Amino acid sequence: MRSGSSFSVAFAILAFFAFGCNFQVAALGIGVRLVGGSDSMEGRVEVFWNGAWGTVCDDLWDLRDATVICRELGFREAYAAPIGAAFGEGTVDIVLDDVRCTGNEETVFDCPARSLGVHDCVHSEDAGVRCTGDRPVIIICPSNQTIDSDSNQNFATVNLPGPAASYHSSLGRLEITIDVDGSTRRVNDEVRLSIANSPHVLQFNASDANNTATCSMQISVLGIGVRLVGGSDSMEGRVEVFWNSAWGTVCDDDWDLQDATVICRELGYGEAYAAPHEAAFGRGAGDILLDEVRCTGNEETVFDCTAIRGSGHDCSHYEDAGVRCSKLLMLTTD
Fold first, then answer.
1. Which residue has the higher pLDDT, 88 or 162?
2. Residue 334 banded pLDDT, cuts 50, 70, 90
3. Domain residue spans in the chain?
4. Going by C-beta distance under 8 Å and a sequence separation of 6 or more, which residues neighbour residue 84?
5. Are residues 204 and 178 in contact, defined by beta-carbon separation less than 8 angstroms?
6. Does the model's pTM come out above 0.90?
7. Which residue range or ranges hold the SRCR domain (predicted)?
């Protein structure tokens, strides 16, 4: 008979504390794995004991023993109990021998067997199983997250979220489909999120052949950005900047072509040919975020320019600054 009860008790205590502390335990089937099969439901049986994985000898190995292994891994019955190292020979210790399960045990360590580590076998006798059924997919939806935008963009990019999953299926891989709100744009396996319309809610389905779950998560976008509002086309308008999670305007005190050129280049255009004052493109409605901007004209972003930021201004919205940009000319040589 075996002396593996302390092993089962130790793992039971570990599982109790893991769940009691609200850890997410993804592994089902304590101390058992299948190795060398063509899919997750078949393979050489290996068990974890004394800090290492080991194999099971095929002496007395039958469908009842194999079924306990399959159920322990979350599958159904075993339909085969291959012997003779059908899935290749292991290279670790042989841990179990002369296993004699009734088929109703919760774990193979509850089955009668020789003492753990005691055997008269070699690895050419390693036992295997072939299971029927499918382990259920356990889908854990991701939590809300915050991402930063690039300093010169109105959008930030986030990879499509995938759920954390205990996934053990031979019936297909985890498939993700996503539905995003109207203020986002999808590019391949990424989603571009508008800074102006943050936060965003992403909803998506995760499924395999037999299981489906719906996840929803909120993504907040933080960062700095620049946009033009109220112009007749995309190259002119009232300057608005994104700061402290909100859009606001720029006061026209000290506003000149050098400042306007930094804005135009930041947006991917050429130089500015005008720097209109006095809310030429209409008055903004948000906070005034920059005042007395003094750029040299070489900065990569207006936020690199000297300025008064936040509430330290002495302006009102009839002083909102604007720009008119020229196209960026692409010179080519033959």
1. 88
2. very low
3. 5-131, 138-222, 225-325
4. 58, 124, 125
5. yes
6. no
7. 32-132, 226-326
